[in-house]
Amino acid sequence: MDCRFEDRVKELIAQLARERQAELAEAGTLLDLETLAVQIGDMVSRELTQMEVARRADALDEAEARCPDCGRMCPRGEREPVILNGLRGELTYSQPKYDCRHCRRSFFPGGRYQRRDYFGEKNRPPGRKHWREDKVGCLLSMTGPSYESDPVPKLPEWLKVSSAIQ
Questions:
Q1: What torsion do the CA atoms of 56, 76, 110, 162 make, to the nearest 10 degrees?
Q2: In this predicted model, what pLDDT tens digit does every residue of 36-71 receive, in sequence order?
Q3: Can you give the pTM of this predicted structure?
Q4: Distances from the Cα of 9 to the Cαs of 24, 67, 83, 162, in angstroms?
């Protein structure tokens, strides 16, 4: 970060300190003072992060979007509320949602989508789910002892092949 930005942050902190002088003066111990400062810092972090997440969601908002399954252009539906659990607390925003009438599904630019064709059905065909994340992945390499109490002590064969990853 450059010096001008740091100076601006210090100005904002000085302004916050003036506005909260009574609370700061009441903080009896260093721990009380730091606890108050952390609460204010967490609020600033949450608000800054929430503003950026909302800006990114708004940047994806178009009147139509291409369905990732069939390729048809689909109209924007109502925005979908999202709640994220961040390091500094809960973040809320809304993201654009698009509805493909052909595929009978909703999808969200940037990743997740929801199928409506099997939503809530008790006798859903095996492997057919209504909720999918299509751009999320995690690769872990771990070692350690196996125990009889492990629910799956060995890696299932079907996960050892690349066709399991779409």
A1: 180
A2: 999 999 999 999 999 988 888 888 788 888 888 888
A3: 0.56
A4: 19, 43, 28, 49
For the chain, what's the residue count?
166
In tens, the pLDDT along 110-135 reads 654 444 445 556 666 666 554 444 44
CA separation for the pair 163, 14 (Å, rounded): 57
Distance between CA 13 and CA 7 in Å, rounded?
A: 10
How far is the C-alpha of 61 from the C-alpha of 37, rounded, in Å?
36
| 84 CA to centre of own chain | 5
Q: What percent of the chain has pLDDT over 70?
A: 75
Q: Terminal CA-to-CA distance of the chain, rounded, Å? A: 39
For the record, the structure tokens of 70 come out as 């069939």
- Stretch 15-26: mean pLDDT: 92
- For residue 75, what are its two tokens? 């109209």
Report the candidate in 163, 162, 166, 106 with the shortest Cα–Cα distance to residue 136.
166
Q: What is the rounded CA–CA span in Å between residue 108 and residue 60? A: 9
